[in-house]
Amino acid sequence: MKFSRLRVVHGLIFFFLTYILCSLQTVVWYQLFGTWASPFFCFILFVYFGLDKEDWKSVIYCYASIFIYSLFTYSSLGILMLTCLFNYILLYIVKNRVYWPGAAYFTLITGVSITLFNVVYIINSYLFETRVSPLLIWDRLFQILATTLLAFYAYPVIKRLDILFKPEMPSEVHGELNG
Amino acid sequence: MNFLNINIKKLIFFVFVLVMPLITINMEEKQNDSEWFKQPFSWLAGHFQDFFYNYSAGVKTTTGQYLNLIQIKKQNENLKNQNQELATRLLKFDEINQENERLKQLLTFRESTKMDLIAAQVIARDLIPDHSTITINKGTEDGLKEGQAVMTLQGALGYVFKPLQKTSHILLMTDRYAVIDGVIQRSRAHGIVEGKGKSGAVLKYVERTEDVRPGDLVVTGGLDNIFPKGFPIAIVESAEKKQISVSLKVDLKPLVDSDKVEEVFVVLNAKNQDMSELVPPTETKN
To answer: How many angstroms separate the CA atoms of B11 and B16, rounded?
Structure first.
């Protein structure tokens, strides 16, 4: 398969994975735990892309994921985009200054990001919506803790998936040596 | 010397072979336990036998018990599995029974009204916790359209805001963006029911002069063309006259607990049904 095609396949896999995680959060969690606040499953993937991928890839994924989120909620696309882009900028700044690979770093950044997501969402709601978002402190607190905890276990799985479907650049030197 | 040419060794051997049983038989006949030299050997033999009997009996019992234990363990395992299976079946049975009861009620309700209704099941909820929306398993292919009312037997629940092919998103009346035309059933005071998150809803734009008391039933007004007229929405929790406001501050408690809803009805066509015929007027608590 051509390299460009592999890249598309890789992108599509993560695109569908976002769908799967959104469905897991809205349907499966609801069926199992009712209206109890759920961890933000798909946001973990958002943070992963923001931290681990090149800028252009992470920006494309960021927009794609916001679009997918908007399909599963009544929240407006604008508020979601503003909130997520703010988060993306934060991830960009942080990863360019402090970065070490591994689950601990990823968990730490996910914890900070999900907290900021909730804070920025409320601020945006106060600034741009006519009917402001309720605080729902316990729900948000649970979501922050659960998402952070989940991130630690999700990181190796996402990483493995990423490596599994990673498009390999065709090596010319290798070709020449074997040829 | 050997005139008869007989092999003496052979002869002795045969004699011995023939004589020995005779001697033994003779000894048997003469057997006497009281013979003093035999007694210690008999005692020893008896003890040996007893010891080995006890030992073998012990081994036999232990082996038997062990084998039995394995059997019991197996039986226990089987019984546990059976018990678990029965408990699961019982739970399932209870669940089916409850579902059956709910569906019966839905069917009775459906038969008692002339509206075109379609039953649906709640399958999901909103991705972001601050919005009160649910997703049902019926979509445009079942005839659902945007703006159609969604209700349960207890009262109004919300309305369809995003119908998809197989599923539809419902905006619950408790969401901050939900708006329903409402009327106080007793005094016919008109207002707009607006959601305020999980904590309930408020009735806005009710004139100060109107008679609103806690415990009053709020029903649908029918002006929004979403809900049939007279369908219960909520109960008045408190009604307050504020100094600077021209309207009353009325807090409502929705009749339907949206967290516990499993099956809903979508009104495909209200056919001008006036639900007040079916919903008897309630008495105010105060």
So the answer is: 8
Verify whether the Cβ–Cβ distance A140 to B129 is below 8 Å.
Answer: yes
d(CA A151, CA B275): 51
Cβ proximity of A149 and A111 under 8 Å: no
The ipTM (two decimal places) reads 0.82
Q: Does B198 sit within 8 Å of A134, measured CB to CB?
A: yes
Q: Within a domain: residue A47?
A: yes
Domain boundaries, chain B: 38-112, 116-277
Say what the pLDDT of residue B24 is: 61
Rounded Cα distance between B230 and B278, Å, is 9
- Cβ within 8 Å, pair B129-A136: yes
Chain A touched by B169 (CB under 8 Å): yes
Nearest CA in chain A to B161: A74
Amino acid at B120: A
pLDDT greater than 90 at residue B67 = no
**Sequence-ordered alpha helix ranges (H) in A130-171:** 137-164
> In sequence order, what are the residues at sequence separation of 6 or more whose Cβ sits closer than 8 angstroms to the Cβ of residue B153?
B105, B106, B109
Q: Does residue B71 register a pLDDT over 50?
A: yes
| B171/A74 Cβ within 8 A | yes
Provide φ and ψ at B63, rounded to 5°.
Answer: -60, -45
Pick the residue from chain A with its C-alpha nearest to B194.
A131
Q: Answer yes or no: is A174 within a domain.
A: no
pLDDT of residue A149 exceeding 80: yes
CATH superfamily label, B116-277 = Rod shape-determining protein MreC, domain 1 (2.40.10.340)
pTM for this prediction: 0.71
pLDDT of residue A58: 87
A46-91 pLDDT per residue, tens: 999 999 888 888 888 888 888 888 888 888 888 889 999 899 999 9
* Mean pLDDT, range B76-93, rounded to an integer: 89
Q: Is residue A177 part of a domain?
A: no
Q: Give the burial class of A19: count Cβ atoms within 10 A of its Cβ; 0-12 exposed, 13-18 middle, 19 or more buried.
A: middle
> Into how many domains does chain A fold?
1
Range of the domain at A20: 3-169
Residue A76 lies in a domain: yes
Q: What is the pLDDT of residue A114?
A: 95
